[in-house]
């Protein structure tokens, strides 16, 4: 197993023996393409989708270069075990938000730098369920994907082995197992399991993208609880250490601190010819035979909308006004409970125990689709925000903060529905690059609100069943998907089943913006699986 995996992705063996960083020779000796050299593919973004695409194509012998607006991180030097000191990991450039239920952007749903938002994600990687791929025909809401769960299943398994993933055998959706046994649970996880047992709700440990033990040169998790601040010890999987080193070892280039500003289209052929970008404030242009965009659900629509031409006056691939539409967030209320004993909820990966008992549509409920529930473990600053949201200030706030070790916290992921008016457009305001910033308008529907209410009630039930004497809930959002979704044809989506845009034959989109629905699962694994499938299809049919 190890030999076969290393033959497919050697990233775990491309770290220094102490596991502290990727081998310095990989960047020092990285292949560097000239702008005038027509590379096989230019990829915009080095997050979940872009990094997997880069690694797969580099292994196939392609001349591949990936751009990222942020830096090439060195975890040992650039990251700190501190909430306030980790804000440089987030995309905090100007953006506008609006709608009836505006969504804050930044730390919880965007990333800047090589590895993207996965450098500060929670490390939780469940699969989507088979039902997620046909919610319109199955439940009368959302949309049907142009692919099925079976089309992604082998790529799910491949990525789970490459990260790798640790967890108990999974009974929900398509039942499956994981390559590593589950991690020991913390006080927070024990509280979840105790409450679930008392309430008659099935719960399982995992799946986390953290090897249970040493993996290649990757070290064991030390359960310090700073997954959301970047894993300084490199135990948590992210593209920065799971796919980028292998891509570099196979001849790819990563061009960090390079902001792509537009995609060039040949007016005669209608094909993409490369990308315009800024490096150190200097405009440059990289020629490419194929272009792929993997900037995620805000920056991908913004880049397309900013890439205007005579052929695309309203934005690239926007003939049917679909670019930027159907952008989704998951409702993510968090409910905490106070216990007499010390919980110390931060002493583990933030999500480590969960249930998907409420994931599917239940005809007896007044809402469609569902939610999942996971352990979460807000660190002190986030916990203070949680407490202040309840109206506690001054001496009352100090009392809750000093009581921090006695609290457990659970979080839900609610499947909010894709709606056409939840969208990204361009604002009049310009950013530091001189580009119009993104305006993200978002409004919940009645089904969304009913789901969040039901999820909160279930979390309160779990905590009270475990013995909590007090509970409190904060309403929030998590994750972004959609904005350039897959469809059966150009009137239903921006890209086809292989992530190729309908309007431009040699332009792909390989990030979470292509997802037509979002389920109640964290999206990282599905984004990586979609990109891996797109890469394989591209390798076998390279000439669009």
From TrEMBL:
InterPro entries: FAD/NAD-bd_sf, GMC_OxRdtase_N, GMC_OxRtase_C. The keyword Flavoprotein applies. Pfam families: GMC_oxred_C, GMC_oxred_N. Keywords: FAD, Flavoprotein, Oxidoreductase. Residues 418-531 form the Glucose-methanol-choline oxidoreductase C-terminal domain. Belongs to the GMC oxidoreductase family. This is GMC family oxidoreductase. It comes from Microbacterium rhizosphaerae.
């Amino acid at each position: 197993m190890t030999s076969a995996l290393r033959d497919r992705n050697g990233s775990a063996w491309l770290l220094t023996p102490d596991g502290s960083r990727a081998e310095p020779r990989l960047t020092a000796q990285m292949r560097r393409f000239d702008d005038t050299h027509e590379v096989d593919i230019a990829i915009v973004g080095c997050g979940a989708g872009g990094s997997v695409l880069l690694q797969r194509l580099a292994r196939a012998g392609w001349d591949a270069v990936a751009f990222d607006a942020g830096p090439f991180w060195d975890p040992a030097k650039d990251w700190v075990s501190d909430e306030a000191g980790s804000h440089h990991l987030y995309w905090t450039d100007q953006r506008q938000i609006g709608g009836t239920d505006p969504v804050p952007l930044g730390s919880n749903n965007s990333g800047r730098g090589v590895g993207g938002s996965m450098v500060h994600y929670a490390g939780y990687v469940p699969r989507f369920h088979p039902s997620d791929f046909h919610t319109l025909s199955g439940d009368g809401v959302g949309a049907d994907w142009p692919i099925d769960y079976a089309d992604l299943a082998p790529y799910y398994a491949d990525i789970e082995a490459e990260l790798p993933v640790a967890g108990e055998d999974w009974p929900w959706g398509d039942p499956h197992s994981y390559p590593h046994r589950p991690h020991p649970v913390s006080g927070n996880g024990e509280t979840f399991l105790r409450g679930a047992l008392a309430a008659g709700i099935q719960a399982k440990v995992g799946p986390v993208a953290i090897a249970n033990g040493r993996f290649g040169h990757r070290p064991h998790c030390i359960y310090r609880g700073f997954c959301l601040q970047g894993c300084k010890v490199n135990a948590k999987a992210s593209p920065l250490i799971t796919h980028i080193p292998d891509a570099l070892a196979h001849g790819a280039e990563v061009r960090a601190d390079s902001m792509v500003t537009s995609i060039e289209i040949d007016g005669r052929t209608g094909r993409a010819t490369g990308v315009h970008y800024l490096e150190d404030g200097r405009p440059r242009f990289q020629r490419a035979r194929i272009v792929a965009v993997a900037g995620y659900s805000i920056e991908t629509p913004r880049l397309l909308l900013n890439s205007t031409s005579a052929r695309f006056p309203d934005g690239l691939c926007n003939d049917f006004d679909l670019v930027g539409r159907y952008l989704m967030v998951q409702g993510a209320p968090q409910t905490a409970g106070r216990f007499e004993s010390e919980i110390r909820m931060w002493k583990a990966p933030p999500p480590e125990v969960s249930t998907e008992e409420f994931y599917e549509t239940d005809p007896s409920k007044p809402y469609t689709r569902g939610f999942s529930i996971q352990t979460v473990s807000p660190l002190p600053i986030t916990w203070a925000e949680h407490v202040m949201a309840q109206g506690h200030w001054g001496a009352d706030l100090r009392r809750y903060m000093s009581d921090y070790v006695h609290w457990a916290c659970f979080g839900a992921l609610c499947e909010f529905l894709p709606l056409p008016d939840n969208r990204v457009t361009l604002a009049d305001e310009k950013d530091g690059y001189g580009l119009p910033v993104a305006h993200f308008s978002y409004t919940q529907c009645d089904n969304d609100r009913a789901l969040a209410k039901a999820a909160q009630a279930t979390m309160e039930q779990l905590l009270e069943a475990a013995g909590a004497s007090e509970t409190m809930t904060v309403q929030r959002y998590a994750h972004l998907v959609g904005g350039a979704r897959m469809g059966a044809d150009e009137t239903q989506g921006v890209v086809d089943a292989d992530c190729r845009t309908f309007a431009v034959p040699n332009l792909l989109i390989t990030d979470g913006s292509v997802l037509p629905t979002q389920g109640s699962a964290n999206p990282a694994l599905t984004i990586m699986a979609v990109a891996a499938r797109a890469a394989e299809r591209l390798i076998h049919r390279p000439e669009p």
